Every structure is written in C-alpha cells, then in structure tokens.
Amino acid sequence: MPLPRQRNLRASPAVAGAYLQAMDAFRRFAHRCSTWVGAPHSFALALLVVVAWAATGPLFHFSDTWQLVINTGTTVVTFLMVFLIQATQNRDAQSVHLKLDELIRANRNARNLLAGIENCSEEELQVLQQEFEKLRRSRPGAQHRHRPTNTDR
C-alpha cells in the first residue's frame, strides 16, 4: 500500500509496514483517549482538579503563578485533545461514508453518483441540494407529512 501523499515515491516494505503500524497504534490510542475523555468519570476528575485549584487560591494569594498553572494545564490538554478528537472524528466519518456508500450501491433505485458526494465541490453540492428540494416539492403531499422531532423518538 503506498504511503498517503507520496504515491509517486516507492517505499520499502519495511518503511511501509512501520508507517502502517504507527498509524494503527495512533488510531487505537486516539480511540481509547476519546472514549475515556468522553466518559462521566473524566468530567468528574476535571471538575475535581478545578475545584482543588480554586481551593488553593487563598493559600497562594491568588498569585500570577497560581493562575498560570491552570491556564497552562488547560491550554496543553486542549491543544492535544483537538488532534485526538479530530482523528477519531475523521475515522468515524469515513466509516459512516463507507456504510452509506454500501447502502447506496445496494439499492437499485439509488444513484451511484451520490456514493462519492463527500468529494464534491460546494457548487456541486448546491446543485444537488436544489435538485433534492425540487424532488421533495414535486412529491404529492410532501409538505404535509409529519417530520419526526426529538420528542417523537
């Protein structure tokens, strides 16, 4: 398998294997982190850290250093989490696209053109959006159908 963005270069099997292993290790790490960070116990831990930090304010006379500790800590954590969450979101979006592509291809009435819609330009998406709006309006009774809301589920 060629390395991404280097399709014209030939990588040795050892380099390609190491690259794929590193990518898989990062994927597993990002998934574990996003699962752990998204859990209630992680929120409780973060809240506990902030409460402990706030409680130590009088002890440190609310100094600049005391404020710098929480500012630096939260900035570093936020910076790193952006990359981990984005990696997880990218993988999830790709998985959903592949599942939808399979459903589109399995349906005889569906247009296979829509299977790769995520690669369309903004103008192409607007044209498709307008086409679907026309289709929706042209169906008899389409405006009078009940649309489910969050409370209907």
Defining key terms:
4 helices; mainly alpha; single chain; 153 residues
Describe the secondary-structure layout.
Layout: H1 13-37, H2 40-55, H3 64-106, H4 122-138
Describe this protein's structure.
It is a single chain. It is extended, with a radius of gyration of 24 Å. The protein has a domain at about 15-110. It is mostly helical. About 65% of the residues lie in helices and about 0% in strands. The model has no long low-confidence stretch (mean pLDDT about 85). The protein has helices spanning about 15-35, 40-55, 65-105, 120-140. It starts with 12 loop residues before the first helix and ends in a 15-residue tail after the last helix. The chain is built from four helices and no strands. Helix 1 (about 15-35) crosses helix 3.
End-to-end C-alpha gap:
44 Å
Number of helices: 4
- Secondary-structure element order, N to C: HHHH
| Topology, number of strands | 0
Query: What Rg do the Cα atoms give?
Result: 24 Å
Helicity, as a percent range: 55-70%
Percent strand equals under 5%
Uncertain stretches? none
Question: What's the shape?
Answer: extended
Short characterization:
The protein is mainly alpha-helical and about 150 residues long.
